[in-house]
Structure prediction request, 226 residues.
Amino acid sequence: TQLLEQSPQFLSIQEGENLTVYCNSSSVFSSLQWYRQEPGEGPVLLVTVVTGGEVKKLKRLTFQFGDARKDSSLHITAAQPGDTGLYLCAGRNSNSGYALNFGKGTSLLVTP
Amino acid sequence: DAGVTQSPTHLIKTRGQHVTLRCSPISGHKSVSWYQQVLGQGPQFIFQYYEKEERGRGNFPDRFSARQFPNYSSELNVNALLLGDSALYLCASSLATGVINEQFFGPGTRLTVL
Prediction:
């Protein structure tokens, strides 16, 4: 059973378009992290959100943590080919201890 | 500063063999976690070690074992390899303190079992 559900699974867009990917769960998380992973490499941490309703911005990327701390979204403005990759959300809750529970990821392709 | 390092980068084994994967954490990090990522999936938690003690274990068989050394580096051992063990094995290090406990990943070891 996947604790975190990510949607969409695949996304192919053209350079300059905006997009939003979602990370949903029925569980409450004490913190949630977003990673980007390129083929054959390890995930790279983008952001950590902790407080319900929190919004964080990283250049053209905007991350939001749901008020109930059960869901999160990642919005990319004016996507560029360099944004291509697998976007993973991962969370910790009271049952997972220090382990991270990952979603399956959203595979994003941005074409010029 | 050096990030998390893992060795080897790639490994090819046959069924029934044994494999040892190695990980060095970021300097100052005392916790190491291991994850398995099969193609098309997110990473799955295998183990976490802190100060040489096992802190958590995921839903993996006893063929999987790990340990952490006094310098905080770690080894993951897998016995009696199966075809299904083919995956990218990721090591992550963290300070392991506080609520956030951000984990930073190494580049992984790609294991292929034939």
In short: The interface with chain B takes residues 4, 30-31, 33, 35, 40-45, 48, 50, 88, 90, 92, 96-105 of chain A (CB under 8 Å).
